[in-house]
Amino acid sequence: MVWQTVWNQIADLSLIAVLLRLMTPILLSALGGLISDIGGVINIGLEGLMLLSAFTSIAVGAGTGSWVLGVLAGVGVSVLVSYGMGFFSLKLKVDIIIAGFAVNIFGSGFTIFLMSKLYGLTGNYTPIGAPKIPVIDIPVLEGVPVLGPLLSGHSLMVWIALLSVVFCVILIYRTPYGVHLRSVGEAPYAAQSLGIPVKRVQYSALAWSGAFAGLAGAFLSNGLTNMFVKDMTAGTGFLALAVVLLGNRNPVGILIGSLIFGLASALSTIVQTVPDSPVPSQFIQMIPYVVTIAALVFFAWRNKRKFAATV
Amino acid sequence: MKTSKALYLEVGGIVAAVAAALVCGFIVILLTSSEPFAAIGSFLIDPLSNPFNIGTILNKAVPLILTGLSMSVVFQSGVFSMGAEGQLYVGAFVGSLAAVYLPGLNPWIHLPLVLVCAILGGALFAAIPGLMKAYLNANEIVTTLMLNFVAILTTSYLVNNPFKSPDGGGYARMELIGKDILLGKFIPGMPVHAGFLIALAAVAAVFVLMYKTPLGYELRLVGKNGQFARYGGIATRKIVVLTIMISGALAGLAGIVEILGIHQTYKDNFSAGLGFDGIIIALLARNHPIGVLISALLYAYIQVGAQTMQAGSDMPREVAVIIQVMLVLLVTAQAIFAYIRQRYAHSGTKAVK
Question: A304: buried, middle or exposed (CB in 10 Å: 19+, 13-18, 0-12)?
Fold first, then answer.
């Protein structure tokens, strides 16, 4: 029954559409995590940033009737909070992990606070007629059998996410900024002695991670669902951190990792909706985490061997 | 060695940080509430206004003390585990199995057995990231975060399927645990349950472990300077694994005490972040067991205050989150504490010269 459904969805390519849709928030926030990680300021607050952006985006979107303003506001808030995180960690010397942890608590609690203060709601906020991030239908391709469902009919944010991979490759490996970023992350004192403004680069790395987490959050509320539910990220930010490591801190690796995780969450959605499934959905939901632990152990083991060989 | 003056400065700084965090919360209340003084009043005073609320504070503090101790032990050894949440679920689950499926035992044997099962469950689950950290140097922040999800999802599956009680009425929970091993109330007129005594005993045990035993000394040394400890002949890897296991044991104990004292049986998703609260408690306490006791009580007071404020005014209880976040950030801001030390410890050093 389940395999039948899965097979049908593979056959009519609707699984691809679902996969891309579910992959997008993971991919975007993982790219954010990647830039902060490369800059040596690992941002574990992605989850909180996404929640803040998701709420702002749908609230502003519904208020102004424009999804563009909504997304921009969401990204703006997320970047602002990332700067705040930078202030506490770089200026006041709070451990960056603790600062990220604080952002997660803040994002979860403050969005619930705002929802209750602004709209008097407790669980979820579903504005009527909130504009959605548009779906891109490609005129001619739409009717073509295989390419149509493969390329047409995806949300604009799916394309933004895929282009972001290219953007990150260029930013990290092909620009002077990328060289600075990598050197700051690798050896901050050496970078400083060469005159690279270490703190400024780290602030900007956090801002980038905020921007990408903001896009991911805005897509959750304004693209994927059209509502805000408390704690709607449900661990996506942590998955993103896992993807950064699974992808071996490389944008293309992260794309592949996000596809795997997107597939796991697409399958678990199918399993949850089909009655009497032989595989419990909890175990499919668990796949990304187990894969990540396995990958981490593998990388650690390989590093250890490499290290042993060079010494 | 810390002089008493340095200690006073540290404690003074923490108290000031707590006050500043509370002020931040009050500013938000002043800006957003139409009856700010009623809200602040019910936040500060109502939690202490009757024995019932005081008992509630103590009950809320119980799991916080235990998870706070759990985190303080790992932090002291320089391991940044975030796995208390998962270890708490595993411990609570294993303990509950022993509580539900071993009926007919004398409660004086049964209750300790249940606690030991929970402690072992938490410790063994914690050994996984411990071994990965010690022998493969796999980043413990990530492995513990991932294993939290594994633990929560696995226990959720088990309590939704094989161990689900048919008379749960839509809730995923186990069969009710026998009354004779539940942790009952021990002060008449106050809802505080006997888990509070267990938590106090744990504070004492961790204090002795950390400051009066060779293991505690080695553990703290590994945290202060791992390389020095290794050259000094300490088996750092073994210490790291042991530390995480002790932390897991305390987290497991927190889970089962919460089950036996409050929930009366294992319920799906019963914790809602107790393990993560433990991180805040340990940070506030600067990882000291006595500090953990005080900060857990303070944190529970803030939580109950937020609830009484929600009941007594127009403010939602999530305002407490602002206070919590500012607490975490201000108390851990090393730059502020370095400044305090420099500014106020100065007169002392001059006199020595």
Answer: middle
Q: Does B137 touch chain A (CB under 8 A)?
A: yes
**At A135, is the secondary structure helix, strand, or coil?**
strand
Tokens for B69? 């101790």
pLDDT in tens, B162-204: 888 887 777 788 888 888 888 888 888 788 888 999 999 999 9
Q: Percentages helix, strand, coil for chain B, rounded to the nearest 5?
A: 75, 0, 20
What are B63-75's pLDDT values in tens digits?
A: 999 999 999 999 9
Q: Chain B contacts of A289, Cβ < 8 Å?
A: 146-147, 149-150
A2-310, what's its fold? Answer: ABC transporter involved in vitamin B12 uptake, BtuC (1.10.3470)
User: Pairing relation of β-strands A124-125 and A228-229?
Assistant: antiparallel
Contact between A101 and B160 using a beta-carbon 8 Å cutoff:
no
Distance from B126 to chain A by nearest Cα, in Å? 14
B156·A117 Cβ contact <8 A: no
Residue B150's contacts (CB-CB under 8 Å, 6 or more residues apart) are: A286, A289, A290, A293, B86
DSSP 8-state code for residue B193: B
Give the pLDDT of residue B248. Answer: 96
| Per-residue pLDDT tens over the stretch A136-183 | 877 776 667 777 777 777 888 999 999 999 999 999 999 999 999 999
- Tokens representing A37 are 């990680």
Establish, for the pair of chains A and B, how many residue pairs have beta carbons separated by less than 8 Å. Answer: 118
CB–CB contact A98 B328 (8 Å): yes
Q: What parts of chain A have a pLDDT lower than 70? A: 1-2, 11-12, 141-143, 275-277, 308-311
Distance from CA of B171 to the nearest CA of A (A): 17
Q: Which of residues 304-333 of B touch A (CB under 8 A)?
A: 316, 318-322, 324-325, 328-329, 332-333
Q: Which of A234, A239, A233, A238 is nearest to A218 (CA)?
A: A233
Question: Measured between alpha carbons, how far is B72 from A47 in angstroms, rounded to an integer?
Answer: 25
Looking at the complex, report in whole angstroms how far the Cα of residue A223 sits from the nearest Cα belonging to chain B.
26
The answer to whether B129 and B204 are in contact (CB under 8 A) is no
d(CA B170, CA B166): 9
CA distance B83 to B180: 31
Residue B352 is predicted with a pLDDT of: 43
Contacts of A286 in chain B (CB under 8 A): 149-150, 153-154
User: Distance between CA atoms of B141 and B122, rounded to whole angstroms?
Assistant: 17
In 3D space, the residue among B144, B145, B147, B130 whose CA is nearest the CA of residue B236 turns out to be: B130
- Mutation target among B24, B136, B277 for the A interface, most CBs of A within 10 A: B136
CA distances to A84, A108, B3, B32 from B24, rounded to whole Å, are 15, 18, 32, 13
Q: Where are the domains of chain A?
A: 2-310
Calpha distance B113→B105 (Å, rounded): 10
Task: Find the closest chain A residue to B34 by CA distance.
Answer: A117
ipTM of predicted assembly, 2 dp: 0.83
Question: C-alpha angle B60/B65/B70, rounded to 5°?
Answer: 135
Q: Where is B99: in which H helix or E strand?
A: helix B84-101
